[in-house]
Amino acid sequence: MKVVSVSKTGTGSSSSIITNTEITPFNVGFGVVVSGTVNYTVQHSFDDPAGTISTWFSHPTVASQAANADGNYAFPVTAIKLLVNSGSGTATLNLVQAGI
Fold it and tell me: Is-above-0.90 flag for pTM?
């Protein structure tokens, strides 16, 4: 079990975390830790990570958050990222995928 982390300070997107869709069952847990003032959304994609990821969907419960939050993905997604909507603080996404 390895924790993968990405951070974003100020507005914009973090780098993407590519998940392993070959693991059964597909389970990903994540937590976002906030420092300073920030509004963020966790997003996921179903696009092929070998190409250009162009379509992102917001997590159903961890969207437009301003405090620490956690969530999970029980269905396969190919990539996960952090979008900072506003603020000058930092948001850090810590992700753990079962089986890795």
Answer: yes
For the segment 83-91, the average pLDDT, to the nearest whole number, is: 97
For residues 46-71, give the mean pLDDT: 96
Q: Does the domain formed by 3-97 have CATH 2.60.120.230?
A: no
Please report the sign of the dihedral spanned by the C-alpha atoms of residue 64, residue 70, residue 61, residue 79.
positive
Phi-psi region of 80 (alpha: psi -120 to 50; beta: other; left: phi over 0): beta
Nearest CA among 92, 85, 77 for reference residue 6: 92
Query: Which pLDDT score is estimated for 37?
Result: 97
